Amino acid sequence: MNNLRTIETIQEIDQLQFNKDGLIPVVCIDGDRMCVDGLRSYRMQAFANSEAVQTTLETGFATFWSRSRNELWTKGMTSGNTMSVRGIYADCDYDSLLFDVDARGPSCHTGALTCFELPNEGELM
Fold first, then answer.
1. CATH value at residue 49
2. Which DSSP string do the residues of 2-50 spell out, in sequence order?
3. Would you place residue 66 in the very low, low, confident or very high pLDDT band (cuts 50, 70, 90)?
4. CA angle 37-3-97, nearest 5°?
5. Can you tell me the distance from the alpha carbon of 40 to that of 36, in angstroms, rounded to the nearest whole number?
6. Residue 41: which of 98, 90, 121 has the closest Cα?
7. What does each C-alpha distance from 88 to 64, 102, 112 come to in angstroms?
8. Helix, strand, coil: what percent of the chain each, to 5?
9. Which residues pair with 64 in a beta bridge?
10. Alpha carbon of 104 to those of 9, 17, 30, 113, 121: distances in Å?
11. % of the chain surpassing 90 pLDDT
């Protein structure tokens, strides 16, 4: 994670490069999860505004901006499939974030462990 910049304080949010809509993409990984295919630790991707990043820092739970509902949402508050955030990292340009999470339960709205499910080996073409 040498190219990543740790975001640990509210003041560091000012360094982030939000898009014209005030959002930044966030990729969630379960850094402690062992994976065979390389994708199983990638849990989901969502968007955050500055308030969502601040809420994540304050609560320790992954919080995002719902573009469809136009409101903050904390992962798992309805489903119980929470994501405790171990670390927040910005990329080299400060225009995307990585949340290192401890994911409890499935991460995808379909009920899959991850939004990046690969087909079973027999289904690959």
1. 3.10.20.810
2. TT-EE--SGGGGGG----TTS-EEEEEE-TT---SSS-TTEEEEEEE-H
3. very high
4. 70
5. 8
6. 98
7. 13, 12, 24
8. 15, 30, 55
9. 73
10. 25, 29, 10, 10, 26
11. 62
Q: How many domains does the chain have?
A: 1
Q: Which domain range does residue 89 map to? A: 5-118
In a domain, 123, yes or no: no
Summarize pLDDT for 22-47 with one digit per residue, the tens: 999 999 998 776 555 555 588 999 99
Query: What pTM was computed for the model?
Result: 0.86
Say if 124 falls within a structural domain: no
* CA distance linking residue 71 with residue 31, whole number of Å: 28
Contacts of 122 (CB under 8 A, 6+ apart): none
Phi–psi pair at 19, nearest 5 degrees: -75, -175
- Give the largest Cα separation in the chain, rounded: 49
Residue 45 lies in a domain: yes
